[in-house]
Amino acid sequence: MNLRERKRSDEINPDKDAEVTVAGWVQTIRKKGKIAFILLRDKGGIVQITALKNEMGEEEYNRLTKVQRESVIAVRGKVQKSEYVKRGFEILPIEWRLLNEAEAPLPMGVVDKVNIELDTRLDNRFMDLRREEIKAIFEIKAIMLSAIRRTLEKSGFVEVQTPKILKAGAEGGATLFKLDYFGKNAYLAQSPQLFKQILMSTGLERVYEIAPAFRAELSDTTRHLSEFTSLDFEMAFIESQDDVMDMVEEMVDSAVNAAINEGKDRLDMLGIELNRPKRPYPRLTFEEVKRTLEEKDKKVDNDLDTEGEKILGEIMAEKGYYAYFVVEYPEEEKPFYIMEKDGTPWSYSFDLEFKGQELASGGQREHRPEILMERMKKKGLDPKDFEFYIKAFRYGMPPHGGVGLGIERLIQKALNLENVRETTIFPRDRFRLVP
Ligand code: AMO
To answer: Could you read off the pLDDT of 233-286 as tens digits, one per residue?
Structure first.
């Protein structure tokens, strides 16, 4: 038997294949007198191995039927059509090999329909991912990421990589992870913000990055990770932040559309009805949102809290919108790199809200170095720490804007998952560093 001759269960054609080699995980073994039915699972699904004691000989039959569940085996056998089997055929073993025996008991079940705690699942993620409905989440995530890449590339964006070990953070001191860098202080990147902006002065014009971002989030919520995948893009020569929002909308729409079309079988299996959010995504000013929420007795200060976002989500859903932008936040609330709306307390900023949760933030950037430094000071930052960044603004920096979008949150909301950890294979949070 040779594994190179192996066929995946979904590649076998009972009209053409007389004999095949299959390999996978032993899901269940059901014995019935002198016959045993082994359900073997591989990437293509399940294939039934039907072992006959009389054909195999007692010793081989006993050896095969005693294999622990979830062991990995390979079987070469005869393909026999059968109307009793879902796939329409079964395999009668000629020879078989135990490739890796599973220990018993298993750390968690793979097929049992019992509800398993998320923590147990994450502790045993390699087993958890053997379940189709869990694998499907990551297959859909890959489909959506691929669509995002296609859409951005079609629009002239160049994929870049920026450093993750930094001298200064851009998103506030509270969530910085500090590390020892050859005796000096350094930080893990909270975002590629400063670098994607520096690149706007180079002539690349449109760049994007899909990479990990690190935040020392102390709060233990269902939407915060210490390490998440940030989709960032930045575009030069914008007329206003509307140009950025147009691109965000197109990108999110293409991702959802790809999930619906290319991930249809998986969405069906998960029982999820995913619809493309109605376009154009409404753009509501923060002032407007504040007024609407206060009419509902929800007090709003300078930002939307989780409850405010949720109520707004419900109001918008009633109107048939589940993706919308909130624009022009108070400049006080927004980072130094965001452009102020001259002579007003507002800023050229936006958040993309999706089913009542923030998915992305962005805006037009302050590209005039003098004003940029003023804003830094106003935020209690020392421009000297950002000299490497400000320098790029002094020798020809076009007006520009961009966005940062949390990929895990996008998947969480698209698939209606309760916890963002479900969308990360090996999530990191305050309490989890392994696996
Ligand atoms: P912001 O800090 O709002 O903006 O982050 C952008 C998006 O990243 C996601 N996100 C997170 N996802 C999971 N866990 C976290 N701890 C977490 N923190 C953030 C959210 C959020 O909307 N530099 C700006 C973006 C820009 O202006 O281009 C930034 O980082 O979905």
So the answer is: 999 999 999 999 999 999 999 999 999 999 999 999 999 999 999 999 999 999
66 and 192 together in one domain: no
Walk across the sheet containing 178-181 and list its strands. Answer: 165-166, 184-188, 178-181
Instruction: Please give the number of the atom of ligand 1 that sits closest to the Cα of 403.
Output: 28
Q: Ligand 1 atom closest to Cα of 192?
A: 23
pTM: 0.96
Nearest CA to ligand 1 atom 27: 362
Domain of residue 310, CATH code = 3.30.930.10
Residue from 225, 230, 234, 304 whose mutation best tests the ligand 1 pocket (most atoms within 8 A of CB)? 230
Asked, for residue 121, whether it belongs to a domain, the answer is no
Checking if the pLDDT of 361 tops 90, the result is yes
Catalytic site residue 224?
Answer: yes
Catalytic residue check, 358: yes
Q: Angle at the Cα of 46 (from 427 to 8), degrees rounded to 5? A: 90
For the chain, the domain total comes to: 2
pLDDT tens by residue, 383-403: 999 999 999 999 999 999 999
Report the alpha-carbon distance of residue 176 to residue 366 in Å, rounded. Answer: 23
203 shares its domain with 273: yes
Q: How many Å lie between the centroid of ligand 1 and the Cα of residue 111?
A: 36
Indicate the burial class of 72 (C-beta count within 10 angstroms; 0-12, 13-18, 19 or more). Answer: middle
pLDDT band at 112 (very low <50, low <70, confident <90, very high): confident
Domain interval for residue 388: 127-423
